[in-house]
Amino acid sequence: MNRKELSPESSPVAAFGERLRTLRDERGWTQDELGERTGYSGTHISAVETGRRSPTPRFSNSVDKAFGTGDRFERQGRAARHTALLEGFPEYVGQEARAAEIRLYEVGVMPGLLQTPEYATALAESAVKRGAITPDQAQERIDLVAQRQASLTRTPTPLVLVVLDESCIRRPIGDPAAMDAQLTRLLEFAELPTTVLQIAPFTMGVRRPFNLPVYVLTLPDRSLMSYAESAQQGHLERESTFVLPLLTAYHQLQAEALSQSASMAMIEQARKGTP
Question: I need a labelling partner for 161 at 20 to 30 A (CA). Which of 191, 213, 261, 273 fits?
Answer without folding.
Answer: 273
